[in-house]
Amino acid sequence: MLKEIFEHRSIRKYLDKAIPKEVMDEVLQAAIRASNTGNMQIYSIIVTSEKSLKQALAPAHFNQAMLSEAPTILTFCADFNRFQKWCDLRNANYAYDNILAFITASVDAIIAAQNACVEARHHGLGICYLGTALYNPDKIISVLNLPKGVVPVTAITIGYPAENPPLTDRLPSEAVVHYETYKDFSEEDINRIYSEKEEREDSKQFIKENNKETLAQVFTDIRYKKSDFEHFSKILIDTLKNQGFLK
Amino acid sequence: MLKEIFEHRSIRKYLDKAIPKEVMDEVLQAAIRASNTGNMQIYSIIVTSEKSLKQALAPAHFNQAMLSEAPTILTFCADFNRFQKWCDLRNANYAYDNILAFITASVDAIIAAQNACVEARHHGLGICYLGTALYNPDKIISVLNLPKGVVPVTAITIGYPAENPPLTDRLPSEAVVHYETYKDFSEEDINRIYSEKEEREDSKQFIKENNKETLAQVFTDIRYKKSDFEHFSKILIDTLKNQGFLK
Questions:
Q1: Which of A46, B64, B184, B225 has the most CB atoms in a 10 Å sphere around its CB?
Q2: In A85-201, at which residue ranges do the beta strands (DSSP E only) sit?
Q3: How confident is the model at residue B150 (pLDDT cuts 50, 70, 90)?
């Protein structure tokens, strides 16, 4: 069992300490060694450490404090721009202006991101994923000057940890692992799978603090709201159109 | 530098040897420890080892030989089905029938997949990603009985290696790494970045074998064709509609 994987926890507080270039280079090389589609390497990584740029990125990530605290933000992008420029110069005709191209390039970007995260932990660094990259891709595109063909799909803060939080809980493996084919869930299955999570003291605290009846309502009414998902889906669709992945 | 990352190569030939349950369990646990969105764990992993099911999956992956040779195929899915069933039973109203929900769940699935791959290598196992999961999601949904809310986003073959291929080449890091903001590429940049790849003997061989003028044309005319990307994008869009992620 690789401790870099099994001891991972998201780090949201960082020491005021830059990442040495040789360490960052190994983290980036780990990303670059990742499996990718046909070895086209249809992704890019933006390494942002300048204070003013981190500040400019912060609103896209809802101004979470770790955006300014972390020495560096890595933004991982689906990227057909470079590949298409190469094709243009080599008399090659392509059609990567579609959803398959976008998702394929996104898979490349995320595999690379996770390699970087595992390697980062190997060097004593902490990371936290910023799922918000998908909420405000338009803002990130503007700050990072991403050309057509490039869409941010995830980002991480990275730096030396100033906290050591406990491992977070997980549902029992029967919640995510299916053998041979998918076994759908009965009401009884759902009750069993979620019982431990629902019985946790911190879950009860969340429900109380937020004046909700159930833990699921904390997710649907506060954290991952209907109105937000609908609003940010529209932005994502517009972004995919603007960046040339949807018509 | 983690050797599990830096020594990784895709394995397409496997020994006829099952993966012991305790080893597979650690690989799956590595996936489950992965960072995920709000700890909702909106992904699932289908572990397929039965011969008849692997054969049924093979056409979806264009009948590549490794589909039957590998002892097991893992299919990683974006999955809002379980979470939504929980919400339904807990009086919680959601809106995860949109593109943001799909991509968010896909990111979870792929981070989990890469953790499984790195842990697999730690146990001496080999893997190969099957990008084809995105080409024929409808076929995979049918074979694996995936309900609404579940879409396969990637798959891997996994087993003990029967080959030891060399590391594949990569473009120089300036091709994928941008400092601070994105620096777009000039014609000179593209020529420099791709020169080593274009000068490789195996690249020249690909061009010759396929009767093409340039290496880029091998990609656009043979491997990642316009007609295929357009055709399979339509299937992907239809699948997202059928599975409840697009209207």
A1: A46
A2: 126-130, 150-159, 177-179
A3: very high
Closest residue in chain B to residue A121, using alpha carbons only? B2
Q: Which fold has domain A3-165+226-242?
A: NADH Oxidase (3.40.109)
Of A137, A64, A131, the residue nearest B38 (C-alpha): A131
Taking the domains of chain A in order of start, what are their residue ranges?
3-165+226-242, 173-223
Task: Give the one of A92, A167, A178 whose C-beta lies nearest to B44's C-beta.
Answer: A178
Show the low-confidence residues of chain A (pLDDT under 70): none
Q: How far is CA B64 from CA B12, B54, B58, B68, in A?
A: 9, 11, 7, 8
CATH architecture for the domain at B3-166: 3-Layer(aba) Sandwich (3.40)
- Residues in chain B within 8 Å Cβ distance of A81: 184-185
Contact residues on chain B for A23, CB-CB shorter than 8 A: none
Cα three-residue angle A13-A67-A164, rounded to 5 degrees: 15
**pLDDT at residue number A135:** 96
pTM of the complete model? 0.98
Q: Rounded distance, CA B239 to CA B137, Å? A: 7
